[in-house]
Amino acid sequence: MINIQEVFETNAMIEKENLDVRTITMGINLLDCATDDVHTTCRNIYERISQRAKNLVRVGEEISRELAVPIVNKRISITPISLVCGTCCHTVDDYLQVSLTLDRVADEVGINFLGGFSALVEKGMTKSDELLIRSIPECLAQTQRICSSVCVGSTRTGINMDAVRLMGETIVKAAQLSKDNDSLSCAKLVVLCNAPDDNPFMAGAFHGVTEADAIINVGVSGPGVVNHVLRQIPDADFEELCETIKKTAFKITRVGQLVAQEASRRLGVPFGIIDLSLAPTPAAGDSVAEILEAIGVDCVGAPGTTAALALLNDQVKKGGIMASSYVGGLSGAFIPVSEDMGMVAAVEKGSLSIEKLEAMTCVCSVGLDMIAIPGDTPASTISGIIADEAAIGMINQKTTAVRILPVVGKGVGDRIDLGGLLGNAPIMPVNTFGCGRFINRGGRIPAPIHSFKN
Amino acid sequence: MQKAIITVVGRNKRGIIARVSTKLADEQIDVLDITQTIIQGYFNMMMIVDMDCCKKDFALIADEMDVIGTELGVQIKCQLESIFDKMHRL
Question: How many domains does chain A have?
C-alpha cells in the first residue's frame, strides 16, 4: 500500500517543483477532408476537428482535477495542410481561408494551439508546398492559435536547400508582418530536419501520414523536479548523479503515462506516445539551464555544458523509456532561450552564445529554439543558421529545428517580451559575415552516407 | 474499487480528523487506512479511502473537501490513488 512519504513526495513535486503534464495533444487525420473546392474542404476540416476534439479540453480538466496534477495545455495536431489542401488551394488567399477556419475551430473547442499548418519538403517542393510556405507569414499574422512547421531535410533524403532559402525569407516576412508584437509570428513557426510524425509539442506538432485517424500523444515535463533532486546531491559522483536523474525521469514519466492512458480511455481515442522531453517554462525553478548548473557548470555555456546536457538527455530517456509503453515525439531536453529564465540569465551574463547553443543541439532535442536576433539579420544568414541545424540533424540521425525571431526594429542590447509560456529574451548577436553565395546556389545537399561513421 | 488518497496538511487544532471523517461517512466513503503525525505543530495526515459507494462526482467531493480545509485552516487534497501507485510502484 502507498505510504505517507510517497504521497507527500508526489505532492511536493506538484506543488513546489512545478511537476506538470505539459500537453495532451490529439492528433487528427484530415486526409479524407480533401476536395477540389476550398469552401467544401474548410467545412470538412471544421466538422472533423470539432467532432473529434469536442471533449478534449473537458476530459483534460477532469483528469487534472482528479489527480491534482496540472495539465497545462490541451492541443491538436493535424495532417500537414499542404497534403490536405494541395488540390483546392491555388492562391495565398485560399490558404488564408483554411488557416482562419482552423483558428476558429481551435477557439471553439477551447485549445490554445493547433499545429500542422505544415509542409514536408525534405527532398522537393510541390507547387502546393511552395504556396503554403509563401502563405505562412500572412496566415500566422491573421490567426491566434495556428502553429506552422516546415521540414526541410532528413537523414534519408538530404537537405532541400531551395526550401532552406525560402524559409529564411519566410521567417523575415513573418517577423515583419508581426512587428507590432515583437515579431511574435516567428514563435509559431519552426523549421525542422527529421521531423517526427507524433510530436505533441508546438510549434512543430503535426499528425503524420503514418498515423491512425486519431491519436492521443502526451508531453511530460518536470525540469523543476530534476533540478530539485540534483540540488540535494551536489557532490555525488557520476554514477549516483545519473541514477538519480534516471529514477526521477521514471517518476515524472509515469504521471504522463497515467494521464495518457486515462485521456485515451475517456476520449475513446488510441494512446499514441509519451514524449519524454524536459520542457522548461519561464517560472522560477522550472529551468533546464538550472539543472545543468546543478550538475556542475557555473553558468550555462561554460565548458562542460554540452557534456552535462548529453548526460542529462540520455538519463532522462533511460528512465522515461522504462516508465512508458510507447515513447516517441522529440523526447529529450529542450533548450529554448526565452522560455527558460536560466538560459536568459546566461545570455545576459555573456556566457551563452548562439554558437554554443548550436553545439548543445548536437546532443539533445531539439534545436535553436526561441532565440531573438537582430531584426536586420539578412534572410540568407537565417537560412545559413537553418542549414547548419539541418546538417546536424541529417548527419546525426536526429530531429533538429530552428525557431528564431528576427525582431523588427530591435538590435543587440534590446529585449522582447512575448508573454505567458513564451517568456522574454534579450536579442542575441549573430555572426555578421554572410553566407549568401552558399544559400543561393540552389538545389539540395545529397543524403549522407550511412556507414563509415566518424 | 475506486481508491482515493486524502491528505490533510496544516497547523494542528482540535477536531480535524472528526470533521473530515464525518464528511466521509456522510458521503458513504469508506476509510481503509489512516496515517497521521504531528511535526513541530504541523498536522500531517493521509487517508486511503474507498469511494465505490459515493454517489457524488469525484471532482465535487474534492471541491467540498477543499472548502472544509479552508474552514479548518488546513489544506485538504483529494486525489485518485492511481497517480501515487503509478509513480511509486512498478
Answer: 1
